[in-house]
Amino acid sequence: MRLDPINLFDFEARAKQALPKHIWDFIEAGAFDEITTRRNRAALEAIALRPRFLVNVWERDLSTTVLGQKISLPVMLAPAGSHCVAHPEGELATARAAGAAGTMMWLSTSSNYSMEDVAGVATGPLVFQLYHRGYDLTEMLVRRAEEAGYVAICLTADTPVPGPKERDIRNRYRRPQGLELGNFVGEPAMLGLVSGTDEASNWDAHYTPPLTWSELEWLRSLTSLPLVIKGIRTAEDARLCVENGVNGILVSNHGGRQIDGTLSSIETLPEIVEAVKGRAEIYMDSGIRRGTDVLRALALGARAVLIGRPLFWGLAVDGEAGVRMVLELLRQELDRAIAYCGATNVASVNRSLVALPGEAGWVRNA
Fold first, then answer.
1. Global pTM?
2. What domains, with CATH codes, occur in the chain?
3. pLDDT tens-digit readout, 175-206
4. Average of pLDDT values for 63-92?
5. Looking at residue 116, what is its pLDDT?
6. Residue 281 and which of 48, 187, 204, 271 are 20 to 30 A apart at CA?
């Protein structure tokens, strides 16, 4: 009798067995030598916990708020594109799982189902992630997201040029036939199918230069929704975010998928928290696989984290139920971790609960 997965790594192993190699490589690939992708995990694992005991932790609360929206745990679903490569119900299954778990889904511009279709099945809050692909397209997407009830716009900043992965090049990967980019087909789009994301059939076709700092005011003029910037990796850019009135910052290296040889997201997080000084909410993605990883990010100043590749693993293994189980495993692990650290809620998780390499202990590369 085969046991259900007991952690996210079990989901990863089963998803690899379930998916064709070129699809698996598309999901797992990082840029160039994939150093940053590996570094994301290594850096998280290098942070030691400092547990606290003889504290009454019998009752614990994992809930928090993101941009004023209450979620039941500080783990959200990242705006990864093309969920249908892992399961035919794609983003619809993901949205239902997020709602059932009481958390927030961030929908990619490159989703296979349209933002309206996803909003139609969602029972939890949704954020729309924006790839700028021209002023007319951006205005169309932002307008539709607001009309569909999305609670914020997240502009991805870390794709200034196309970034095809070498695994995809070797596999001659193309978006599977029949899997359209749902936000660019049908009557709501009106402007027709476009490419130019790493989920598109031709990476370089119609690629549009990204927005610049001076154009954020134009983007904000399109909507009253909060604005989050995704892909910030330095204190310098974090300060520019708050100077430009950004409401949230997603500290992210895109899972190591866009440029190799950078710091991990968790290594970048402390300097960004220090630079922002509470003037914007801060979230983090890239490498989260355990509840203890969530705790580490919270302790270093993140309000919540997002998971990307693991949602594909959940979809590949068991669709909506698989994504829900991925979230529930992280919930159980985080709940146990904060109890061991003497905390009763996520707001009480602080810097004293972790030790960075060199601060304490002597084990290196254990």
1. 0.94
2. 8-345 (3.20.20.70)
3. 888 888 999 987 677 665 554 444 444 434 45
4. 98
5. 97
6. 48
